[in-house]
């Protein structure tokens, strides 16, 4: 189910069966559907002329019935000496979304990797205050084809240099488990050997803690790696950093994640954005260590990307190392991630926010004050009554400018 602004579905949201039925309804042989799939999934077709070897009339008919590429325009910026490519895609209705293609050179014992980080929604309703997408507010859910076309964009770009995409992570704009049906359809397309053909082990879906979504994934069995964006192991602080925590607190999120790991045998990845003086104290490290001790878990510590409208900055590397040390001391696997492409705003939502423009100065000032007060209260162990985000979210739908 993938409709564009003019009502035509995106072709990347079609299954082999639905394409086969479409051909059959026109009296065409089933191998024509396979030829279309070959063009879409192996050659990343985006226009009628890419649908060879179909006859011209059939190519035109396919292009009239389906949108071959739901990304109307893409603006790419390079950083890290070309190792990070940040894309701002405009969809048919003008909505803006972002994806990031990251290149990792080969290392001893590890082949080179090319990972694309994609969006599942335009904007996000969760409103984490350290995230530029959270500042944008919620635009709309993406269709299956709009999600998958971000991956095809990356694959097309790599193929031009004879390279292949190795990993897909759903960590761009949006909360994937709040658009779970479309995300599951996209994962099926990506993992299907007859379509994109990427092993499910190379796909990671993140959530900020939508417990019913995690439980639904657990019931479906192993699909992909699940990453939980935790950012705090204490409720008063997580209420501030991940407002969804008021609905599903830390203990519920961890219980669901633990059950998922037990049922699927897959290690859970926990993402933890390191914010200086806010969630990086020894007490926070110890709370996280106590929460995850003995679990099938891996923690990624990520220095916070600068977000213009918060009073916060990334923790220093010395503090991050000390935090990691306290986790490792109890046997928890930890990786310290390096931020990619800060100079081009590689954290999700930053390019779209830049395009939309600044919120009014008084709103920014009120938000900074509220965040400072809320995080200070959380450090004292107090839960604040209201969320910190009312001043800025929503500042407008992505693409509104
Ligand atoms: S961090 Fe993720 S869940 Fe939180 S506001 Fe940003 S996109 Fe949404």
Q: Can you walk me through this structure?
A:
- With 401 residues, the protein is of the alpha/beta class.
- The protein has 2 domains: 11-65, Orthogonal Bundle (DNA polymerase, domain 1); 71-379, TIM Barrel, CATH 3.20.20.
- The protein is 37% helix and 17% strand.
- Helix 5 packs parallel to helix 6 (180-191), helix 7 (211-220) packs parallel to helix 9 (250-264) and helix 8 runs antiparallel to helix 13 (361-379).
- The protein is globular, with a radius of gyration of 22 Å.
- The two termini are 28 Å apart.
- Bound molecules: iron/sulfur cluster.
- Residues 124, 126-128, 131, 133-134, 173-175, 208, 348 line the site of iron/sulfur cluster.
- How widely separated are the two ends? 28 Å
Structural class: alpha/beta
Placed side by side, the strands forming the largest sheet appear as 1-2-3-4-7-8-9-10-11-12
Mean pLDDT score, rounded? 88
**CATH topological fold name of the largest domain:** TIM Barrel
Low-confidence stretches: 388-401
**Count of DSSP helices?**
13
- Tell me the fraction of residues in β-strands, as a range: 15-25%
Helix amount, in percent?
A: 25-40%
The total number of structural domains is 2
């Amino acid at each position: 189910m993938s409709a564009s602004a003019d009502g035509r579905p995106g072709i990347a949201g079609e299954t082999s069966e639905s394409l086969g039925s479409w051909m059959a309804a026109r009296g065409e042989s089933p191998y024509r559907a396979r030829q279309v799939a070959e063009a879409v999934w192996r050659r990343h077709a985006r226009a009628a002329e890419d649908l060879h070897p179909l006859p011209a009339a059939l190519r035109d008919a396919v292009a009239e019935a389906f949108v071959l590429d739901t990304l109307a325009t893409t603006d790419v910026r390079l950083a890290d000496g070309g190792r990070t490519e940040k894309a701002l895609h405009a969809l048919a209705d003008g909505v803006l979304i972002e994806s990031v293609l990251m290149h990792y050179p080969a290392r001893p014992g590890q082949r080179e990797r090319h990972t694309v980080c994609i969006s599942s929604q335009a904007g996000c309703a969760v409103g984490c205050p350290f995230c530029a997408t959270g500042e944008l507010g919620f635009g709309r859910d993406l269709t299956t084809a709009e999600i998958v076309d971000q991956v095809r964009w990356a694959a097309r770009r790599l193929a031009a240099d004879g390279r292949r995409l190795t990993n897909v992570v759903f960590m761009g704009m949006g909360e994937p488990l709040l658009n779970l049906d479309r995300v599951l359809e996209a994962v099926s397309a990506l993992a299907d050997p007859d379509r994109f053909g990427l092993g499910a082990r190379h796909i990671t879906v993140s959530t900020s803690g939508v417990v019913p979504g995690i439980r639904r994934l657990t019931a479906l069995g192993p699909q992909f790696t699940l990453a939980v964006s935790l950012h705090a192991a204490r409720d008063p602080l997580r209420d501030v950093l991940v407002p969804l925590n008021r609905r599903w607190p830390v203990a519920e999120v961890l219980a669901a994640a633990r059950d998922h790991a037990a049922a699927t045998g897959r290690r859970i990845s926990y993402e933890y954005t390191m914010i200086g003086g806010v969630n990086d104290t020894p007490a926070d490290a110890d709370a996280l260590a106590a929460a995850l001790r003995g679990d099938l878990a891996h923690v990624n510590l990520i220095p916070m990307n600068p977000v213009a409208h918060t009073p916060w900055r990334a923790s220093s590397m010395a503090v991050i190392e000390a935090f990691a040390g306290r986790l490792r001391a109890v046997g928890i696997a930890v990786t310290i991630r390096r931020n990619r492409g800060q100079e081009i705003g590689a954290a999700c939502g930053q390019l779209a926010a830049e395009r939309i423009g600044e919120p009014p100065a008084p709103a920014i000032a009120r938000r900074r004050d509220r965040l400072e007060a809320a995080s200070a209260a959380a450090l004292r162990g107090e839960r604040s009554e209201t969320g910190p985000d009312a001043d800025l979210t929503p500042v407008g739908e992505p693409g509104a400018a």
